[in-house]
Design a protein that fits this description.
CATH topology of the largest domain: Nucleotidyltransferase, domain 5
Structural class: alpha/beta
Distance between the termini: 31 Å
Largest sheet: 5 strands, mixed
Low-confidence stretches: none
Strand order of the largest sheet: 3-2-1-4-5
Strand content: 15-25%
Number of domains: 2
CATH class of the largest domain: Alpha Beta
Shape: globular
């Protein structure tokens, strides 16, 4: 506690970002330090779990110390420790969890485990101090694509999810075959601005009537088939047009399903979360659709969309305030129901 404010320190290490943050009263970010491994994995074309875990181990103490310094607080003033315990890469998660447990035990501070997706959704509470549940949430990231009913600060009901590739995963795979490199999302978003989204039509996979689920594997395969066919016949491949056509097909599906869910829940609020939420085209299309439907759209700034510890601290704070507690026996989970 400092100046009458409840302080939470949180750890996030589910993939390739080592992150530690300090928050006051759950929503005020005092520090949000992120050590990214993106430059390392550009050479591999994607995240290598063992290497990611090794770098988390090397970086996490330094990142924690910096987060405390930037927040201007000491460990003795921290009231709560939050940590991502799933889903994610188990080896990477274990580094964050082991550090959080050690700090919680040594300093006798309560510990809360946080679901990674609840963290992403909670980023909106940081960006928009007046936002309160209930609302419809759209989570789009490298490993997740979900539509959820955010019923309270701690209770979330999933009504739609991906049946195969998550949207970010599809972006990475298409970017790889186009020779754009890693990470695929920002690179496709950038090159697609130079292309014509109508030049190459890819089928929109809507699944069953009234389904809020997603499937991007077929779309990814369609792009691969188009590229292979063009190469075999000697046709020139316009990468910008392919990227634009692929991205438009993805966004058309996401927007249509998200708006249908928002209409059904009738909260008048749609919150975007996850790394793909930083995509400029997705933001623009959702803003247009929400204006038409008179639905208020909430989109966090890019640093709060990608993996960070501030969102984990916010989610941990609300779990704690709801009376929830975890012990030092919490574990890491590669998959974890929401």
């Amino acid at each position: 506690m400092k100046d009458g404010k409840f302080l939470t320190m949180a750890f996030e290490s589910s993939c390739d970002e080592t992150a530690v943050a300090v928050l006051a009263d759950g929503r005020q970010v005092l520090s949000n330090v992120i050590s990214s491994q993106i430059d390392i994995f550009k050479n591999y074309g994607g995240v290598v779990p063992e290497i990611a875990a090794r770098h988390h181990l090397e970086n996490i103490n330094e990142v924690m110390d910096r987060a405390l310094r930037e927040a201007g607080v000491t460990l003795k003033e921290i009231d709560l420790i939050g940590v991502t315990h799933g889903p994610g890469l188990v080896g990477a998660l274990l580094i964050g969890i082991a550090t959080a447990k050690a700090v919680a035990y040594a300093a006798d501070i309560p510990l809360i485990g946080v679901h990674h997706i609840m963290g992403h959704i909670s980023a909106n509470f940081i960006q928009f101090p007046r936002l309160q549940p209930p609302f419809t949430a759209l989570v789009t990231s490298g490993g997740h694509t979900n539509i959820a009913d955010m019923q309270s600060y701690t209770c979330c009901k999933v009504i739609g999810s991906t049946r195969d590739d998550a949207v970010g995963e599809a972006y990475d795979k298409v970017a790889r075959v186009l020779g754009l490199g890693y990470p695929g999302g920002p690179k496709i978003d950038k090159i697609a601005r130079e292309g014509d989204p109508q030049a190459i039509h890819f089928k929109r996979i809507m699944l069953e009537k009234d389904s809020y689920d997603f499937s991007f594997s077929g779309l990814k395969t369609a792009v691969l088939n188009y590229i292979n066919s063009a190469k075999q016949s000697g046709r020139e491949i316009n990468r910008a047009d392919v990227a634009a056509g692929f991205q438009q097909a993805v966004i058309d599906v996401i927007v249509e399903k998200s708006m249908a869910a928002a209409r059904k829940m009738d909260y008048g609020k749609l919150a975007l979360a996850g790394g793909v939420a930083a995509n400029s085209k997705l933001r623009a299309e959702l803003e247009k659709a929400c204006r038409k439907e008179n639905i208020e759209l909430y989109v966090p700034e890019p640093v709060l969309c990608t993996d960070n510890a501030a969102m984990i601290g916010c989610a941990a704070y609300y779990r704690y305030m709801a009376g929830e507690r975890d012990g030092l026996d919490i574990d890491a989970y590669a998959s974890l129901p929401l």
